[in-house]
Design brief:
The complex is a heterodimer of chains A (169) and B (251).
Chain A: H1 3-10, H2 12-22, H3 26-42, H4 53-74, H5 93-96, H6 100-109, H7 112-122, H8 128-135, H9 139-159
Helix pairs in contact in A: 2-3, 3-4, 4-8, 7-9, 8-9
Chain B: H1 6-13, H2 19-31, H3 33-53, H4 63-75, H5 77-89, H6 91-97, H7 101-106, H8 108-123, E1 133-134, H9 138-149, E2 164-172, E3 177-184, E4 190-196, E5 208-212, E6 215-222, E7 225-231, H10 235-249
Antiparallel strand pairs in B: 1-2, 2-3, 3-4, 4-7, 5-6, 6-7
Helix pairs in contact in B: 1-3, 5-8
The chains are: A mainly alpha (169), B alpha+beta (251).
Amino acid sequence: MSETDRMIEENIPRLRRYARTLVWERGRADDLVQDTLERAWGRFHLWRRGSDLRAWLFTIMHNVHVNNIRANCKTPVQQSLDEDALDIPVRATQEDGLQIRDIQAALDCLPREQREVLLLVGLEEMRYEEVAKVLNVPVGTVMSRLSRGREHLRQIMMGKTIPELKVVK
Amino acid sequence: MRTLTESDLQAYTDGQLDPLRLAEVEAWLADHQGDAERVASYRQQNAVLHALFDPVLNEPIPHRLVKTERRRWSMTLPLRYAAVAAWLAIGGTLGWLLHDAQEVRSGAGMSLVRQAVIAHAVYTPEVRHPVEVGADQEAHLTAWLSKRLGTPVKVPHLGTLGYELVGGRLLPGSSGPAAQFMYQDARGQRLTLYVRGDNGGNQETAFRYVREDNIGVFYWIDGPFGYALSGDLEKSELLRVAQMVYQQLNP
């Protein structure tokens, strides 16, 4: 296995985590990862050695995802709300007292642009400049989306009164 | 002090604030409870997201994502076959390089390697049916292959080197049955150990190494068995595995 293969593979777990936040259902989230990887392999010569590989891969995933959404909008598909289809990891949720469905619902309420920034910063812990690069928008836009997204989420959570959230430190 | 901006508040939440500004923001938050609550709430959002989604990081990577890699690899497979075919044609010449006159005369070593390499190239890219009998039925695998090869067969365990047994299959050798055991590491890199029981004699040889395209092969003959360990690995790494196989077969 070459160095390149190894470097890309190291990023697969993170790509899968982010994909799961964009598309709840596990199989479809992994479809997104697979599309991303295939595109990455095909264009690997375009990656500038020494630059941030993770940011490059996330950029590809973002673009694939946005394209998928556009394609779906042309032929609207009713999304399944079947409980079983929502394959979110449920580690220790009982103890945490997290209401996964509520958080999911709250995240779903956010505009996609805000949700992406919130997740890249909050979950991926990317620097704002990196997020700007991944999403191809100015840093100022990242900041305003982040600010609005977080406040939006906070309001939704407060409005829905989810006391269980307070358990998480 | 400067008024707290929205960006300050976000950057403070994420630990991305300019260190020079940090003390000022902390002082501000001490006096402005509403802003402090927002920071606490946003940090909690981050914690919830981690609690929800971090378990994905520890899930085993689905085979089809590793397969994306394999598909790329398999595009080079026709070339690989071509290389193997070319090698078969010049096998006699190559044999000279093996520095073993007796072996060249008998051709035993070369035919062992040929069969092992072909079997490796054919079965390692296989996604759905890489083996006939999986590692979960190891006792059955051993008993079955021992019976077919007519001699007790041992299956080496290479877990300490990171290679877990996938399973094995029965294959035709040059004059009777042969066996292939397949191993795989956490990244899906596969090795095969080809075992041929029709060696007949009781000769013994040292480790020998050949490399064809990307497949490296260490092979040796030990009593009734001929062994060939094949893999797309550095020579030194493959040797380490070969030595462990040898040690386990000759405790």
